[in-house]
Write a structure and sequence with these properties.
It is a single chain. This protein is 71% helix and 8% strand. Strand 6, helix 5 and strand 7 form a beta-alpha-beta unit. About 5% of the residues have low confidence.
Length: 579
């Protein structure tokens, strides 16, 4: 097909600018992954160097093929009462008549007609064809239309399918439409005077534009041209169509329409694309703001949970304090001079009493188990609640399965792991060695008792035996005072032993309490930090993806705005009315 030669320099420059724009737009949609739009842009870019495209559209049996034959003055296309055009046919100029199938849905017919040197006629399947795929074929080609001649029949003017198709042409694609009322010979002048206003009013009311309507009889025009019947040709009114196409729309006007056709297409596509990008950016902003709120909430939740964990530290310390109270009570009752003296004659010694009473008394063993169980349940409940929030973000990322698998098995696994660690490490703190401790207290008691007996025996001996001898050297009063002092010291031995033992064992218990409570608090804080960090990493990944997607959308929107400015600038240069 020969390229169009343009002499008008300004128009030539405009078409060159449009071609350059189309190349840039094709690159843009290629990079953004919109291959369907990219293909349409490529088609229009190639078409810029081809003759003016006039698409003939309408319902089947409206007379489209007959109309094309009438324009060319020869029966080139097959006509009939049923759908005869199953694909799109390009009628172009050639040295001879030929037919060529370009692809599954597109064929080309060449014919040596002078009128085809400036235009390419495009015959399409009927918009109401029984072949449903025909509508898709037409819609996938309509973006290439630079002028649409829509054929409607006088016996069924402006049907519902025709109205929808014209709405598509004007609304979505912004194409210039000429409405041709065919088969005018079947109606009287009065009837035509009713039909034409009907079409005009409905186009304005339903479609928002004032159409140009031309009445013809394609069949009469074909017959007139074959028989060279001028009167019949005049009555057919085909000459008004030819005058509109070849005279009123001169070459420059056609070329301006050629430039406007892709620009109107781009304007509509950009509008939809811009709305889509702005919607995505707004959604990303909302999601990012939600994540930032969640991150602030996680920070606050971590502080709340760690503060609450101190409660368990106090409970552990309280358990050991209760142990000290019971020990203090035991020592105050059993480790006295009187009690130990009595135990010398009793079958149950102090060590056995200690083991018996400490076994039956409340022990930190059970208290620590309860505290650990409560603490682990608290951490697990809160972790699960936080994970449920994180799941909402993962669902938006379409990776729900990963988090669910992590959350569901991890809740129990982490609970059991934390429980095991706390109970295993607390074993050394909560198991009080009763055998060793009873031996220790027995030794302390025996030592104190022995010292007490020894000192009291020495005091008695000083008075009873040695007193008589000492009177030869010392006054009797001094001897008695010394004996009484020795007896008094004896009575302080056991309280001193008890105090020393009490101080030592309380120190050991306090050390155990500190180690146990600090370890438990540390492990609870680790568990809190672990789940918070896992969630923060999960939502941070989602946030980073959304940031990246938002930045990409904003970049695409900025590029689109620049391309839109170029489109508006080129449309502004045109003096052709596209309506």
């Amino acid at each position: 097909m020969a390229n169009v030669i343009i002499k008008n320099k300004e128009l030539k420059r405009t078409l060159k600018d449009v071609s350059a724009l189309l190349n840039d737009v094709e690159d843009y949609f290629s990079r953004t992954g919109h291959t369907d739009i990219q293909k349409k842009i490529r088609d229009m870019a190639k078409q810029m160097a081809e003759p003016f495209y006039i698409i003939i559209a309408g319902e089947y049996n409206a007379g489209k093929s007959t109309f094309v034959n009438a324009l060319l003055g020869k029966k080139i296309l097959r006509v009939g009462p049923t759908p005869t055009t199953h694909n799109i046919v390009l009628l172009t100029h050639g040295d001879s008549f030929s037919q060529e199938q370009l692809n599954e849905n597109l064929s080309r017919v060449t014919y040596p007609s002078e009128s085809l040197k400036e235009i390419t006629l495009v015959d399409t399947p009927g918009t109401n064809s029984i072949f449903v795929e025909h509508e898709d074929i037409i819609e996938n080609f309509i973006h290439r239309a630079e002028l649409v001649i829509f054929i409607t029949s006088s016996d069924r003017p402006l049907t519902e399918s025709e109205r929808k198709f014209i709405q598509l042409l004007k609304g979505k694609w912004g194409r210039k439409v000429l409405i041709v009322l065919n088969k005018a010979d079947l109606k009287s002048e009065e009837e035509l005077n009713e039909i034409i206003p009907f079409i005009e009013k409905n186009c304005y009311k339903l479609l928002g534009f004032d159409p140009k309507v031309i009445t013809i009889s394609s069949l009469s025009a074909t017959t007139a041209k074959s028989n060279q019947d001028k009167e019949l040709l005049r009555k057919s009114n085909i000459e008004e169509i030819e005058e509109f196409i070849f005279e009123k729309m001169d070459f420059d006007v056609k070329m301006e329409l050629k430039s406007l056709s892709p620009l109107r297409f781009l304007s509509n596509v950009f509008s939809d694309r811009k709305m889509d990008l702005e919607t995505k950016i707004a959604r990303y902003n909302s999601e990012i703001a939600g994540i930032e709120r969640l991150e602030a909430r996680l920070k606050s939740k971590r502080e709340d949970m760690q503060e609450y964990a101190k409660k368990y530290k106090l409970e552990i310390e309280a358990a050991f304090s209760r142990l000290k109270e019971r020990l203090d009570t035991f020592l105050g009752y059993h480790m006295t001079t009187r009690a130990l003296m009595a135990s010398m004659f009793s079958r149950e010694k102090i060590g056995d009493k200690f083991k018996k009473e400490m076994t039956s008394l409340s022990n930190p063993l059970h208290d620590l188990d309860r505290v650990i169980d409560d603490a682990v349940d608290y951490i697990t409940r809160n972790n699960r609640a936080l994970w449920e929030i994180a799941l909402d973000y993962k669902k938006m990322e379409s990776a729900k399965g990963d988090v669910e698998s992590l959350g569901e098995h991890s809740f129990e696994d982490r609970k059991n792991e934390l429980q095991f660690v706390l109970k295993e490490h607390s074993r050394e703190y909560r198991e009080f060695d009763l055998v060793n401790e009873s031996d220790r207290i027995k030794a302390v008691a025996q030592g104190g008792l022995v010292n007490f007996v020894a000192m009291e025996g020495a005091a008695i001996a000083a008075v009873a035996g040695f007193g008589y001898l000492l009177t030869f050297f010392l006054p009797a009063a001094i001897v008695m005072v010394a004996a009484l002092a020795l007896a008094g010291v004896g009575f302080t031995v056991i309280p001193h032993k008890r105090k020393t033992y009490r101080t030592e064992i309380f120190k050991r218990i306090d050390n155990l309490s500190d180690r146990c409570s600090n370890f438990t608090t540390s492990e609870l804080n680790k568990a809190i930090d672990r789940v918070i960090e896992d969630i923060e990493n999960t939502v941070a990944c989602f946030r980073d993806v959304r940031w990246s997607e938002r930045d990409m959308c904003m970049k695409h929107l900025a590029e689109l705005n620049k391309l839109s400015d170029r489109v508006r600038g080129l449309i502004g240069k045109s003096s052709v009315d596209i309506k």
